[in-house]
Amino acid sequence: MSKEGRFRKRKHDNVQPRNRKEEGQSKVNPLSPVLLSFESFQKELDAKHDKYERLVKLSRDVTIESKRTIFLLHRVISVSDVGELLSESETKFGDIRSKIQQIAQELIGEDTCQFHRAFSPGLQEYVEAVSFQHFIKTRTLISLDEINKQLIFTPKTEEAEHSEDSTLSCSQDQKQEQQPLSLQVTPTDYLLGIADLTGELMRLCITSVGNGDIETPFEVSQFLRAIYDGFTYIGNTGPYEVSKKHYTLKQSLGKVEDACYMLTVRGSEVPKHVLADVLSSKPSMIEHEEGV
Amino acid sequence: MSVSELFSVVQASLAADQDVREEIRKVVQTLEQTAREILTLLQTVHQMSGFKEIPNKCQKAREHFDTVKTHLAELKTKFPADQYYRFNEHWRFVLQRLIFLAAFVVYLESETLVTREGVAGILGVEVHRDKGFHLDIEDYLSGLLILANELSRLALNSVTAGDYSRPLRISSFINELDSGFRLLNLKNDSLRKRYDGLKYDVKKIEEVVYDLSIRGLGKGDEPSEGKVAEK
Prior knowledge:
Chain A is built from 13 helices and 2 strands; from the N terminus they run H-H-H-H-H-E-H-H-H-E-H-H-H-H-H. Chain A has helices at residues 2-15, 33-74, 82-106, 116-138, 144-150, 155-161, 163-166, 170-176, 187-210, 215-234, 240-269, 272-280, 282-291; strands at residues 152-153, 181-182. In chain A, helix 2 runs antiparallel to helix 3 and helix 2 packs parallel to helix 4 (116-138). The radius of gyration of chain A is 28 Å and the shape is elongated. The N and C termini of chain A lie far apart (87 Å). With 231 residues, chain B is mostly helical. Chain B has helices spanning 3-43, 54-76, 84-110, 116-123, 137-160, 166-182, 190-214, 222-230.
């Protein structure tokens, strides 16, 4: 009988904290203020982690799309109709920006820096793509302000795009209508993006040599030199990642300068009509040197 | 704008950023100093003689927290309020320490777990982000985990000092804390790593309680001394 009684009692114990995980701990009262406050902590932490994950996902999408756009822009040397290519890249940038807008949407009312790590890689890749396009178009460096200007979104399009969130953040949307939504690229992200850009420029330079384009390599080398000087000017004022990229930048610059040197030396001794042939054999030579 | 102009703009903003960080670092250093003083003060409860003077010690510690308040108020003025997380890593460590110290004082005084509001009150900061310099939830939880570690030590030492009832009270307190933490879904970050240490503290205290209970809750001094030697 006593056995049965104990069994019943234990069963009863289990029923009470049914919705709780720590059923074994009958000692702790599930309604104690400590546990209640931890329940609210659980909600708060989960909400934060969920938001973080959503941002990471969006950032990855931005990264992938930006990479694709860069690949698209690399075709610029082999394609005759540059205008068409640029307009194609422009539509791609539209898609990326709408993704970034979603990031900004997630960050409404939040401290942007708290989640910065989640979306920073995406933004850097975006800076790289956008500055690459800008270079191809104008042969100049896009400024941080210009990039940020493109990332200010008017609330009208935002509502159309966010049918899913509209019910949830209805009141927020209304509040947002007074001030447009924006996501600002930090100077550090800008610098890191520009450092990546130099890698793309180096590729552009080498491939254009392969295509017999004698103008581009010199333009690129001049531009790269200016950027390199800029990074040297910043030195170690910036964060650690920036100085790390500085080294890679130097290598890229070295390759481009080598290519230009070759062009100059060979260009003067080879007759114009043979030049194209000589130049198209150049990339393999440079590639070979890289390997050593 | 030419490339070099663009870079000088960026450089200027980076330099400004560094200045802010430098200012923050200075204040944080004084905060760390005060935190160490409080810790030294509270450490003495582990000594034999310290147990009797706990209220006195807590009183003194509370006075130190007033200094902390002024330092934290100073820290607030060093950066824009909406950039808390940008510079957060500078004071993260010391803030966790201070949370632990506040929680320790509250525990010694009333044997209860300090609430987030309670800590915020002691440190003179806000609970929620939108109101200014606030207490990040993860920092609060980290502080509590440091507390658990300290209490497991206190349980041992109170036995040595001849206080046999305290470990039991600590045990139920830590158990409650443990079940609280088990409600959380932690990510694989530093908080989670700290939380993984909690079970060892729980275990340690349970062993103390076990040692006491098999000896009839500490009648005589011998068993407790033997226990401490084993540790």
